[in-house]
Amino acid sequence: MERIGLCFLDRPDLQRCLHLVKTAEERGFDSAWVCETRLARDAISVLGAFAAVTKRIKLGSGIINSWTRVAPLTAMTFATLDELAPGRTMLGLGAYWDPLAWKQGVERRKPLTQMREYVEVVRRLLALERFTFEGELVSVRDIQLDLSHGAERTPKQVPIFIGATGEKMLELAGEVADGALLNGITDVDYTRRAVEHVAIGARRAGRDPAEVELPQLVNVSMDADGQRARDHARRLITMYLGQQPHIARASGLDEARLREINESLGGWPPSPGGVERAMRLVDDSVVERLYVVGTPDECKRAVWRYVDAGATYPVLVPSSTNYEEIVDAFAPA
After folding, report:
1. pTM of this structure
2. Residue range(s) defining the domain that contains residue 62
3. Is residue 126 part of a domain?
């Protein structure tokens, strides 16, 4: 596998993350992505630290949302990261999700319109334009990036990826973005459909679909004991099915079973013992459908499913704690 990425959630501790990203770079990984999941850890601080300890590997947000940071702040942030890691920075954006947005006082509406406007403003700011843009949900007035003192005023080449799950957002990525970061905890049939929808959007904008990159988040639970790997993955899958059911629906999971899982969880956050109760409703067939899971050989075989389905390259999201072993098992070099 010539290209492969590594994605960091809210774990492990940051010192170990720094060691892992340096190891991934040494072992030939193409990219490292940092999530902002729940209210656990912000991506930008980690990306800055990664930029300081690496020289080659590409660094992306995988993803930050387009609601809690205004577009000029995001543009300024990624121009700054590009100063730390010239030509290596990638901006991954997502439309966020409820109830987390609602709990922070963010009222999401018309997410497609908001994302389209947000991408346009960020892209024009990174191109160092001075402009006014009065959108329906995103507005800026007589604005441009100043950049830091003494910095050369050349446009910032920061590719923009939309972290899309729904069909319309995937098509929007094909229209306006450099790529779509395809969601994890999804099955290969979803990947095939996602590729088709990105292509629809690209063609609508007069673009060649092959120009749109499609890295695929692939959640990995690996263990010499394959069943132990499956049991470990089952917990995280159960939490996602209860917390972000739109991801499960994208893979065509049964709606009645999703409601049953949510009721067993007792809402979100789960009630005491809720995760354990709900895990009993998630069998091995669901685990293997949504995850790369099992022994090292099983995992290495399974990850190819997503590439065969049309993803440009896989971005591994380890959930088992043997991170170094996973990096070693999948290393291109």
Report:
1. 0.92
2. 5-226+292-330
3. yes
